[in-house]
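As a representative case, the lines below give one protein's residues and fold tokens.
***
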Amino acid sequence: AAGRRQRWPEALALLASAERLPQVQHPMRGRDSGPHQAAIEACARARQWQRSLALLNQMFDQTLRTDIIAFTTAMSSCERSHVWERALDVFATLCASRLAPDWFVYNTAISACGKGEHWTLALHLLSRACGVDGIWKTELFNSTISTCAKARQWPRALELLARMPPELVAPDHVTFGAAMEACERAEHSEQALRLLRTMALRRLHPNTVVLCSAISACAKDSRWQHGVALFDALRSASSSSSSSGAFGAFS
């Protein structure tokens, strides 16, 4: 992986060579944008977000056909580099174009909101994805709940979990892990224990990440007895495959 990240200069060199070749323009689709998209991907892997954006802008300047992959790759590069404002700028540009964002684009934009703890915008993006574009994905709810957790908006996180329509999206371990993180950050042990009971009712066995967050919430909320009990249950669960009910008994 490190080797691939270091090869972005080669991708730019290949792009420069390709641009010196005679360009063939399709009468309906325009000039080929493949070399630019490959270079954007190479720069994104190397966390060279400035170069990714420069290449995307170059595609506009040269009137190359730009598809959703180029936008998504540039957005991901910015999001992973924690320049969330730039990622949202790319999202806005995509929405202003003729392209329709898919669930992965929305998820990248919401994750970028999480980097900046911009929970209100994350909620807006989720609402737009579900309401306007009809995109219902568990991953979108997971990212939005995680954003609320990072912003210490635990009531919003738990509200989102409760409002997930089961006929369209089903909460998974990642969903409960993000909601549990919200409770932990808020030092709200009672809500953390309720989440464990909810998981038991849904026959979801809490994983180590969820349990460690629950234990931490109990410790921060001075409910060390519950934390110790959870830790003992975690140790017991490691030697048993049918212990999902054990975590639903906490109150």
About this structure: Residues 24-30, 241-246 have pLDDT under 50 and may be disordered.
